[in-house]
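Same chain as my last thread, 316 residues:
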Amino acid sequence: MPLLVMDGRQSRHKHPRVSVGLPVRNGGQLIGCAIESFLTQSFYDFELIISDNASTDQTESICRQFAAQDERVRYFRWNTNRGASANFNRVFDLARGEYFKWAAHDDWCASDYLERCVETLDKDPTIVLCQSRARLYSENNELLGTFGYPSGLASARPETRFRQILWRTKYPFIFFGLIPSRLLAQTKLLGRDTGSDRILLGELSLLGRIVEIPEPLFCSRQSFNERVLRNRLWWSPDNRRRLTLRTWRLTQGFSSLLLDSQLSPMTRYELILEVLARYGVRDAPRMGYDLLLAGRQLLSHHEFLEKSVRSSPAQN
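reply #2:
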C-alpha cells in the first residue's frame, strides 16, 4: 500500500526556478492564508509542494481545492503520521527548483518576498541562504515584534558564521529562508531529534554566507510554542523508543559537523571546545535535566516490562 499519494494537475514548469515546500499536519485553520500568500507572489516561476502528514481535519480538502485551481500547487499526503522531520525532508526530496524554501502552514510572506530573495541569490554565488527580517504575531494577530539576524552570518569566514549560529541565533525564522537546492542537497537535512533544525543551520553556515533582506517580508504566527517544538514525538514517532537527551544530542550533532568539515584542524578543535562550553557549561542545568528525564524514561520502561511479565500467562 503506498504511503504517499499525489493530487493536482502536473505543472507545465518541470524545472521551476523556486520550490516552496510546505509540510503540514492538521493546519486547516491557517493553511489557506499561507498558500494564498505564495500564489499572489510577484515572482511566478515556482512550485508549491504540500506534504500532508496524515491530517485529520479539513487540511486535505483545502489543499486539494488549491491544487485543482493552480497548476503550481502539488499536493501529497502520507497515510500515516511520519513526524515533522520526515515530512520536512520529504518536500525537499520532491522539489525540482533551482532554489528551495521551507514554509510553515501558520506563516505568510509579503507579495515580493520570493522576488527579492531570488534577486539576492542570483547576484552572489557565495550566499547559501537568504531571508528577510521577520515579524512575529500572536495567535490573535497582534504584532509581538520584528526580528533580524546577527550580521556575522554574512561573514566570509565559515568559523565566524558557525559561531553566530551556535551562540547568537535565538529565533528560528532564518530557517525558512531561500536556499540553493544544490547546496541543501549536500547537507544531512533534518534529523529526528529536537533541535535538528539548528544543526542544519550550522551545517549551512559552513557552506556559505547567510544574508538578510532588511525589510520584514516574512511573517510568523506564534501558534507553535517552544514546548511543542521540543516534543520528540512531534519530530518523529520513532523517538518513543529513544531516550530524549536533547542537549546532549545537540552537542554531538554540532561536534560531528565540525569533525566532518573542511576547516583546519586547529579551527575545528577551537570550535568543538566552544560547542562544549555552549552546552556543557552555559546549558549545564539543561544537560542535567536531560539525564533526569532519561532516568524517568528508563524507569517507566522497566516498570512497563515488569507489568507485562506479571500479566503474561505462565510459560512451561
